[in-house]
Amino acid sequence: MSKLSSIEILGGGPAGLYTAILIRKLLPNVRVRVTEQNPEGATFGFGVVFSDQALEFLRAEDPETHDLITPHMERWRNMTLNLPDGTVTLDGVGFTAIGRLELIEILKNRARALDVPIRFNTQIHSLDELDADLVIGADGLNSLVRQSMEATFKPKLEYFDNHFAWFGAEIPFDTLTQTFIETDKGPLNAHHYRFAPDRSTFIVECEDATFNAFGFANMDEDQSAELCSDLFKDVLKGTNLITNKSMWRQFPRLWCENWVAGRHVLLGDAVHTAHFSIGSGTRLALEDAIALVHALAAEKDVDAALAKYQKERPPIARKIVDAANTSADWYDTFGEKLGLAPLDFAHDYLMRSGRMTEERLQKIAPEFAAQYQKSRAVVG
Ligand SMILES: Cc1cc2nc3c(=O)[nH]c(=O)nc-3n(C[C@H](O)[C@H](O)[C@H](O)COP(=O)(O)OP(=O)(O)OC[C@H]3O[C@@H](n4cnc5c(N)ncnc54)[C@H](O)[C@@H]3O)c2cc1C
After folding, report:
1. pLDDT tens for residues 33-55?
2. Distance from the CA of 254 to the center of ligand 1, in angstroms?
3. Torsion angle of alpha carbons 365, 81, 351, 345, nearest 10°?
4. How much distance in Å is there from the Cα of 140 to the middle of ligand 1?
5. DSSP characters for 257-323?
6. Which of 139, 200, 253 has the most ligand 1 atoms within 8 A of CB, as the residue to mutate?
7. Distance from Cα 185 to the centre of ligand 1, integer Å
8. What are φ and ψ of residue 4, in 5° steps?
9. Closest ligand 1 atom, residue 47 Cα
10. Ligand 1: nearest atom to the Cα of 139
11. Are 199 and 170 in contact (CB under 8 A)?
């Protein structure tokens, strides 16, 4: 039987920091350290959303961390679709949001309060640099841990067709809003919501043909931001988009067949991705951490604990990842749907992940469901 006395965590994003916090709580005698390549206080992106129930799992797991995070969250009950032919309100489709940096800072401070050493500004180039009984790869999409042991982890990595850029806006929006516009070079979508009283995430997305027609590939971040500010000037009220590593990208579709390779284990974006349109990547990363640390606490033998994590966690994560992939597929062809009447478009949008039924829709968004049924009756 092999016992655990030291753990190295690679990556100081949400997955790595939350794992360290839980290790301190559930395995107080195990030495743990986090290594992060970025300087302290730096990260990519702007805010992230959670569904309005999403933080309940954090409350159950670690009420202290939950209580530190929730006062910093923005919340809203409805969602708005701005379409070329009108606006539709989706009542009851609630979300909460927080700045990515703010979330990381809260988790970092909580980890430090629990005496977790965190090395910033330290990029690891080889797994030989991490010497411990267990190495946890919380090192995101370009995971060194995964790439060093691909033959065992068996990753499948593809990319969706659409292009997106993650900007910020210096104005708040009332609700999570999807704005769809038509231009002479093709349709574009913006996915925007406030994550602080005066600041919003503003993700611009478009199909490949539109991306090429605008020549975004030949623009730098500032030029893209300037053009997108102009294209979306109505919702932005004439303000300028801001950047933070806002290069155009295609969203990855990653899934690993195995999450464990000997004494190396993956979690979060290192092992799977979930398209931002269902707002679940961070939540999945935190839930992976919970599953892993509970498995380590439940089993005296490390290999048995890792086998438990491998057996129990992927099937649960897979359901959310499938829903995210289906949702992302919908976005890959959103331009074709812009010819629909606004209520039909909105209905199609709500059904996109394959997890919504008419019955659920009536419960979640009764006002929208009634409006939609009425419009169908008129057409019928
Ligand atoms: C446009 C966009 C919008 C999104 N919106 C949402 C949203 O609304 N809601 C949501 O829940 N999720 C969202 N996500 C997904 C979310 O950002 C990720 O799922 C989440 O960050 C995963 O956390 P992680 O800790 O696994 O990985 P990361 O946050 O990527 O952290 C990995 C860390 O490891 C570090 N690292 C990597 N390699 C090394 C190395 N060799 N040495 C040292 N350090 C290293 C990196 O610097 C990084 O800090 C969005 C993603 C994108 C791209």
Report:
1. 999 999 999 888 899 998 767 67
2. 13
3. 120
4. 5
5. S-SEETTEEE-GGGTB---GGG--HHHHHHHHHHHHHHHHHH-SSHHHHHHHHHHHHHHHHHHHHHH
6. 139
7. 32
8. -110, 120
9. 8
10. 34
11. yes
Q: Which residues line ligand 1 (CB under 6 A)?
A: 10-16, 35-38, 45, 48-49, 123-124, 138-140, 144, 166, 203, 268-270, 276, 279-283, 285
The residue nearest atom 29 of ligand 1, judged by CA position, is 13
- What separation in angstroms does the CA of 200 have from each of 41, 149, 196, 236, 366? 19, 38, 7, 10, 28
Residue 343: φ, ψ to 5°: -70, -35
Q: Which whole-number Å values give the CA distances from 54 to 60, 107, 222, 285, 363, in the listed order?
A: 11, 17, 34, 12, 18
Domains of the chain listed by start with CATH number:
6-43+100-159+252-331 (3.50.50.60), 163-236 (3.30.9.20)
Tens of pLDDT, residues 282-341 = 999 999 999 999 999 999 899 999 999 999 999 999 999 999 999 999 999 999 999 999
